[in-house]
Specification:
The complex is a heterodimer of chains A (375) and B (296). With 375 residues, chain A is mainly α. Chain A has 19 helices and 2 strands. The mean pLDDT of chain A is 85. In chain B, strands 1-2 form a two-stranded antiparallel ribbon. The chains are: A mainly alpha (375), B mainly alpha (296).
Chain lengths: 375, 296
Amino acid sequence: MRSLLTRDPAARRPLLHTSYRSEMALLNTRAKRWTVAVILLLALSLPFLLRDTDLTMLTRGSAFAIGAIGLMLLTGYAGQISLGHAFFAGVGFYTAAVVSGDPAERALGFGVTEILVWLPAAGLVAAAVGALVAPLATRLRGLYLAIVTLGLVFVGEHIFEQWRSVTGGASSGRRPPAASLFGYRLDLDGPYFTRAQQLFWLMLVLLVIFAVAARNLARSNVGRAFTAIRDRDIAAGVIGVDLTRQKTVAFAVSSFYAGCAGALYYLTFLNVNPDQFNLLLSILFIVMVLIGGVGTISGAIAGAFLIALLPWATDWLAGVLPLVSTRPSDTWNDSVMEFVLYGLLIIGFLLFEPRGLVGIWNRIRNWWTTFPFSY
Amino acid sequence: MTDFLAAVADGLGRGSVYALIALGFVIIYKSSKVISFAQPGFMIAGVVLVTYLVQVSWLGFWGAMLLGAALTALLALGIERAVIRPMIGRPIFAIAIITIGIDIIIRTVAHAYIGPLVRHVDDPWGRDLIQFGPIRMEQRHLAAVVTAAILVTLLFLFFRYTRMGLAMRAVAEDQEAALAQGVSVGAVFATSWALAGGLAAIAGTFAAAGVSVDNTFWPIALYALPVIILGGLDSLPGAVVAGLAIGVLRALADAYPDSLTWLGSNPSVIVPWLVMVLVLILRPYGLFGTREVERV
């Protein structure tokens, strides 16, 4: 009731900002504060409500979201189209796997299972590789960059397959990183909670940290330089944005996120082959960014969860549609449906809702804020 | 020397396949300034169609290939009309990503029709060899080179002497000026997609000659990307020359793996991509492409 009784104009009109600081605040309206609080509370309590298999899908969604946020910074904010995200995810994964791997195993490993060590290492090595690739990217624009980064995925896949001592080779692969926090193993069933529950909470906390960091970057001068480059790179250069430097920063930061996402995503797997880091993974990241809503961090998260939870939709479709089955031997099985849905989502969103899930959410919100009037 | 020439002959055969696919990329790029990532999809769709059509006994291999190419062209035409045309005027990036979506759908459906087993285009050559003096060449490669030569000649005549070819050249030069002169830009887009689809189907059929088609067949079409970068995105002769060059380079990498041990085993997989990166550093507009002029 405070908003109706108080004399403070800012409190009565949530969209009226009386200072730059309040307008740029992370959660600049009360509705946003409440929504975020409710979503976080709900998310924290999910491990008590869901089965472990469903929880693992959400865990993977969180890891995807971290990678998608990275690509969002590069593609959605800085406007550099990269199809090479899977390569950087692979670099991060193998760094983490080497740092934390069991020295007794066949693949190279140093046995440091502390997540606070291997996660930053994964991100930093990927960022370093990203910064190495960036000089090429700063010379190229638009679709040329897309093709080069696509080539990067193929070169990367080849390297991963050849470098057997690190990756285990094409046929056998290697185990994902072992995760412990201050000596407590998170990737094994603990005395109180199961492995799936622990990994879910870990991923949720990391997602919040990564998302807030990205949002802060986006609303800083670096983020404004990114958007200037996206909107018109030559004009941005004219008004004093150092193009080479900012593009390198964008690539390095994006690769850092991709590396962390790669290391985290495969925690939920038992064995990882080098062909995991293929073009499809890159395309999936692009899809997450696009259907989430270009230029918004929340969009990247929404898109990532939509993609990660798509198997639920295909399971449901397999039950509803008469021709679709779950038998892999049939022509129209559920994995075929999954890929067709990826394609349809890309085409549908680009044709009908280029602003993505965030655009849909904004329209719903505007409809309710002005209810019962349409404007 | 004989080994070298044999590798070159082998490479020319593979290269004609890349050249045909790359021509499709370039034709679409010239008309609409979009790189269509749907080409692998059209290629695999064409191949799968051909593998089913060859089972119709009266068609034969050539009839099946031509009918398959025509049907793929129709498919490309329909997709252009339904999905790409509404996107005119939207950012190039968005259209390129839509073509990725198209590619995923076509490829998935085509793979579903390949099924768990492999399929064959039942070509008349298999892996038979033909002898030219000291050089042995696979017949299927010779057929690919000859077919590519015929198609390139036909395309040249089409662009040079038909009204539609003239219209396409006009649109490539300046879309708005062409529109003002009464050229139907929509028809040009449709034709370019149909041509690209048909070429991809024929290229795929020759790539599948002598081997079997399965779910790992489609990346062949992606080698057309280094080709168009090497030749220049907007150059038809560039696509042909660069296609043959990339084919020969791959064949040489296969023939002399010992000199490329630093690339690991099977170096021919990444040689085209390394060439592409090199070209982009030295000559970003390709060997034959026009240098891009940026207006602010």
